[in-house]
């Protein structure tokens, strides 16, 4: 097995892993702050991807304005969902949160399918289909743009969560809700911020993935399926766990896909998740004692 | 109440003698199979409050197992069907055991991922399932030399299957085991302090619900005469779930009525699939937001309110 093929697989896996990470971090954030598993997460991503697909031709295929439109659209959708449905949920109403977000997911997914039909959209950008060769490895520009976008976002996210009041408030609520409420934090405001942040990550992921894969109504579900496995592997509610598990899964899947039948590639996430649940049920990156949820 | 049940069964049994439209009979077949699957979901979700999203997987696995056992292994349909139930049951234990290790939350997520995984396996394990093209030309089962083909015979096959399954499930719902499960749902710690092992009951409920759902899926496949990965379409899962929520989880009669109405109503109104799903989704949102205990819960609340106001006078 030549090493170029291996490096090529690794490069592709890293890009996909970074996109997984964008989705999984949002899920982990919502689980930590609101105590819910968001089944409409894939549909927020879908909204971002369709917004990108529609906005790109309007801006003459310019990449950055398309991304901004996608993120803004996802934020508006997330905000609406929070104000109308999620803000009415009490903390710990876990099954209800699933059913509500599942209902939202059904409505958005089928609504999009009703309006845009199930025909996949091929999204073209200013980069076209050109790529760049680093040594013998060839990577398409759209993939590099997706990777750069994700990396910049993670840097911004790290600063936001660690060095700003908004981010610290979110972390405080997810670490110890009661103590956070006791010192006068407002759960509704913090919850809204978390939903907006998660929605913008989804919009970004949707925008990043739109030119890399075909845009079709079930795009979101396939990706979120992986993200669910990732947050279990990383430890539910743990953001750094979600990032590491996502990148690792992207690379591992890509390797498996390169050397084994495709069925094992799809099964990898599930098998790793079951193994983690058997050996360390609270996830690889869970903090001892201070669990959320 | 027993009289009403006998009348309903009698009307259902005599219906094909009056109605000759195979379309109406095929709606009946779907309704019978949906009722069994929704009631199975009601065992694990209604009695124990464990939200299982794996029922779509058991439904599809039941279909594939029965078809492959009959066509590739040459088993009789009547042996393959219960074997499919058992296979799904064993699988439910294998998935349920690790899924229940952490908490109710992880159970939901693990069952969901299991459901999505089975779709991918059905699509990608081409040597076994023949991939996305599916397996066409499923032979008709024979019952003592009588060929079961077409809407008329399948109406009776699925009707008898639903009758037996629902009777067994009714006996289960009124049993002591079901009461223990309700107790576990209300307070797991309290049940544990009474010497009850919650995990064993949870696995039993999961096994039973997988068993019946898989057999319903097996009959569905033979009714369609073709099976492809679309049997894993999340649409079915959402339909079962909405029947349980609208009927009122934990309520046998509520889910029965909601299941019947929700199988028949969209056919009568002739919605396209996308639009039907949007409306199902809106119904789900409305019930979960405003009437989380479903129709049965709503009726119970009204009755209790009336009792209370009568007592006050």
Tell me what the structure shows.
The complex is a heterodimer of chains A (293) and B (313). Chain A has 293 residues and is mainly α. Chain A starts with a helix and ends in a 14-residue tail after the last helix. In chain A, strand 1 and strand 2 form a beta hairpin. Helices cover 73% and strands 3% of the residues of chain A. In chain A, strands 1-2 form a two-stranded antiparallel ribbon. Chain A has eleven helices and two strands; from the N terminus they run ααααββααααααα. Chain A has a single domain, classed as ABC transporter involved in vitamin B12 uptake, BtuC (Orthogonal Bundle). By secondary structure, chain B is an all-alpha fold. Chain B has one domain: ABC transporter involved in vitamin B12 uptake, BtuC (Orthogonal Bundle). Helix content of chain B is 78%, strand content 1%. Chain B has 14 helices and two strands; from the N terminus they run H-H-H-H-H-H-E-E-H-H-H-H-H-H-H-H. A two-stranded antiparallel sheet of chain B has the order 1-2. In chain B, strand 1 and strand 2 form a beta hairpin. Chain B is globular. The mean pLDDT of chain B is 85. Chains A and B meet through helix 4, helix 9 and helix 11 of A and helix 5, helix 11 and helix 13 of B.
Helix and strand topology:
The complex is a heterodimer of chains A (293) and B (313).
Chain A: H1 3-34, H2 41-58, H3 63-84, H4 94-116, E1 131-134, E2 137-140, H5 141-163, H6 165-175, H7 177-182, H8 187-209, H9 219-234, H10 239-259, H11 262-279
Antiparallel strand pairs in A: 1-2
Chain B: H1 2-18, H2 22-47, H3 55-71, H4 77-99, H5 104-124, H6 126-129, E1 142-143, E2 146-147, H7 150-173, H8 176-186, H9 188-193, H10 198-224, H11 234-247, H12 252-269, H13 273-290, H14 294-312
Antiparallel strand pairs in B: 1-2
Helix pairs in contact in B: 1-7, 2-7, 2-10, 2-11, 2-12, 3-4, 3-5, 3-10, 4-10, 7-10, 11-12, 11-13, 11-14
């Amino acid at each position: 097995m030549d090493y170029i093929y291996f490096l090529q697989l690794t490069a592709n896996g890293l890009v996909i892993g970074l996109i997984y990470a964008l989705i999984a971090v949002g899920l982990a954030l919502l689980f930590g702050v609101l105590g819910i598993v968001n089944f409409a997460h894939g549909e927020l991503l879908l909204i971002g991807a369709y917004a990108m697909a529609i906005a790109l031709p309007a801006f003459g295929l310019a990449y950055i304005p398309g991304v901004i439109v996608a993120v803004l659209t996802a934020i508006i959708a997330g905000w609406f969902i929070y104000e109308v449905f999620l803000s009415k949920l009490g903390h710990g109403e876990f099954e209800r949160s699933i059913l509500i977000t599942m209902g939202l997911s059904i409505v958005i997914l089928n609504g999009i399918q009703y309006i845009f039909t199930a025909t996949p959209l091929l999204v073209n950008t200013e980069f076209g289909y050109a790529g760049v060769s680093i040594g013998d490895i060839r990577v398409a520009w759209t993939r590099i743009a997706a990777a750069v976008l994700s990396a910049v976002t993670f840097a911004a996210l790290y600063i936001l969560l660690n060095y700003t009041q908004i981010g610290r408030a979110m972390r405080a609520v997810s670490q110890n809700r009661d103590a956070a409420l006791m010192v006068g934090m407002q759960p509704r405001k913090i919850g809204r911020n978390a939903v907006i942040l998660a929605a913008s990550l989804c919009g970004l992921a949707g925008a990043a993935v739109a030119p890399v894969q075909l845009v079709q109504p079930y795009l979101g579900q396939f990706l979120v399926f992986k993200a669910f496995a990732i947050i279990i592997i990383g430890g539910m509610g743990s953001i750094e766990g979600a990032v590491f598990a996502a990148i690792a899964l992207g690379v591992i899947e890509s390797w498996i896909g390169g050397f084994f039948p495709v069925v094992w590639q799809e099964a990898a996430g599930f098998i790793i998740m079951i193994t983690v649940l058997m050996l360390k049920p609270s996830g690889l990156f869970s903090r001892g004692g201070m669990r959320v949820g | 109440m027993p009289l009403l049940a006998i009348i309903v069964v009698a009307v259902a049994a005599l219906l094909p003698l009056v109605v000759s439209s195979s379309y109406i009979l095929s709606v009946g077949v779907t309704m019978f199979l949906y009722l069994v699957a929704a009631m199975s979901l009601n065992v694990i979700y209604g009695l124990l409050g464990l939200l299982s999203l794996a029922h779509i997987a058991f439904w599809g696995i039941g279909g594939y197992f029965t078809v492959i056992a009959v066509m590739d292994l040459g088993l009789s349909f009547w042996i393959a069907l219960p074997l499919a139930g058992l296979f799904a049951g064993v699988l439910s234990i294998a998935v349920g055991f690790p899924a229940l290790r952490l908490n109710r939350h992880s159970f939901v997520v693990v069952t969901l991922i299991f459901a999505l995984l089975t779709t991918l396996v059905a699509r990608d394990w081409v040597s076994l399932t023949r991939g996305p093209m599916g397996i066409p030309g499923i032979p008709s089962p024979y019952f003592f030399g009588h060929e079961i083909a077409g809407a008329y015979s399948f109406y009776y096959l699925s009707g008898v299957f639903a009758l037996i399954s629902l009777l067994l499930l009714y006996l289960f719902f009124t049993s002591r085991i079901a009461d223990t499960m309700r107790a576990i749902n209300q307070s797991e710690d309290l049940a544990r302090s009474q010497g009850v092992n919650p995990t064993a009951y949870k696995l039993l409920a999961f096994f039973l619900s997988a068993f019946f759902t898989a057999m319903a899926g097996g009959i569905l496949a033979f009714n369609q005469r073709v099976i492809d990965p679309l049997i894993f379409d999340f649409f079915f899962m959402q339909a079962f779930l909405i029947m349980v929520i609208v009927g009122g989880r934990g309520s046998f009669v509520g889910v029965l009525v909601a299941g019947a109405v929700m199988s028949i109503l969209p056919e009568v109104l002739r919605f396209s699939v996308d639009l039907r799903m949007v409306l199902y989704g809106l119904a789900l949102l409305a019930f979960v937001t405003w009437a989380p205990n479903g129709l049965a819960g709503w009726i119970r609340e009204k009755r209790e309110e009336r009792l209370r106001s009568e007592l006050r006078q």
